[in-house]
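quick one, three chains, predict together pls
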Amino acid sequence: MNALPPFSLSTLLQVVEVLGVVAFAFSGFIEARRKHMDMVGVFTVAFITAFGGGTLRDLLLDRRPLYWVEHQEYPIMVFVLAVVGSPFLRHLQSARSERLIVVADALGLGLFSASGASLALNFGMPTFVCVMMGVITGIFGGVLRDVICNEIPLVFRRGELYATCSFAGCWVYLWMDWMKAPEVMSLGASIAVTVVFRLVAVRFGWRLPG
Amino acid sequence: MNALPPFSLSTLLQVVEVLGVVAFAFSGFIEARRKHMDMVGVFTVAFITAFGGGTLRDLLLDRRPLYWVEHQEYPIMVFVLAVVGSPFLRHLQSARSERLIVVADALGLGLFSASGASLALNFGMPTFVCVMMGVITGIFGGVLRDVICNEIPLVFRRGELYATCSFAGCWVYLWMDWMKAPEVMSLGASIAVTVVFRLVAVRFGWRLPG
Amino acid sequence: MNALPPFSLSTLLQVVEVLGVVAFAFSGFIEARRKHMDMVGVFTVAFITAFGGGTLRDLLLDRRPLYWVEHQEYPIMVFVLAVVGSPFLRHLQSARSERLIVVADALGLGLFSASGASLALNFGMPTFVCVMMGVITGIFGGVLRDVICNEIPLVFRRGELYATCSFAGCWVYLWMDWMKAPEVMSLGASIAVTVVFRLVAVRFGWRLPG
């Protein structure tokens, strides 16, 4: 376990979070454009997708200031991207946009799951709670995006390997931390396991038994 | 009003909460199986139903650590039950499972309403706020379960006596506490009133005027 | 920026909040009656609409006690209005009730947006975060109302000028505060801009480009 000052993120975790914000915001942009939303809708969906999971995690851990409050450059970035990027997204083909969402969403899932598990561990949470926090952080932004866009959230689709990938990745993080691996390796392995597991499951149509 | 240390539950309240978690988790299991969800779906629905109301209550009261964070044995218990119990639930008949949900849900409603009102009172909240906290704690897990499973939440079904039962039970708790009844009696009477009121209303088809 | 004691509202902000609670509760009453809900449903929808935005704001800012917990007279007022007013609302004509909702909702939007931005500024949040807090506070109650009543939330309707009005009003507040205008003028101008912008947009059918 890292010794972190209680109310700040290590630089490493910050990098993971920024990448997660970008990945999830991107998946929100594309989903909102597919639903023909206007610019305000695109920004709202991207904002909620990018910050939903981390905000719920911070509320549950009682961690303040919230990370998008501490760093107003994150929401500003999402806002600028929504204003500047909206017209370009219009020309995305439907088939390509669906594939892009799957990839961006898998990246966001992996990055936020690892960051959630790591932060919970740094807050001294018990093991199983760290895993649950990782899973909640990873899936919640996407759940909100799908609810707003009137899609069945991936996590509730029958047989879909989604929360399971996050669950596996979080256990990898905790196991490597317990083996005293350096933080960068634990985070990297956890992210890789979640993302690869998810993408392979989508590619080969792996399903959970009913 | 009991003198409780501010950040821990009395043993009595803990017993009430464990029973409420089990009752609501059970209602979540059955509802998820009725919707033919897979094992991950069953766990997710049971987890959210069992811990949703208490988590919202703790967020509103700013009570930390959250009770499922303090006691990781609760989410582990729900997880083990979801993994072990899922195959058995498959063979439940539809009519029986509907009746089981009503009973489990009524028990969860009574147990969580009383615990919410009691905890709010111990946090020094004013009377009407204690009642609202009890009602919110009692109904929120079931609302999330029904939203996820694409049912109209019981509390929003026209004429259904649901929130009303919780409301009555919470007033009973506060009135008995004001009469200086011992905590065990106040909790017991409150739970009994909510559960019996709810079950009798379902049995005899009592409805609210339109 | 006003020097406020950190956990209390200035009298001015309190007035703004009470008016916002009344406006949003009223929009909730009418919407619930349009959906033929019973008395419990009417109270629940009014309560959630009136207190949803402010509660989310307080959770995000970690501001306790929540304002409806500090002032139990607010939820009691909504409760009494629901019990006493329900029978009267039954006779509202459909066309008139739709117009009333638009006006009550615009007022609530303006009042809560300004109060959210002002409170966030008093908590020392950075500028863009103050605007986001204002928008979140302004729109969240109405989003919950529409979700419960099975309407598409106004903020997610294509082309609808809704969040945009709140966004504009919040910038007016921050700009006037930065110009060292007295609080009463900043709040007044912000509320006026949001409400008038919204009502004019509805009246003349202004739309955002797609």
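Residues 131 and 171 of chain C are 7 Å apart (CA to CA).
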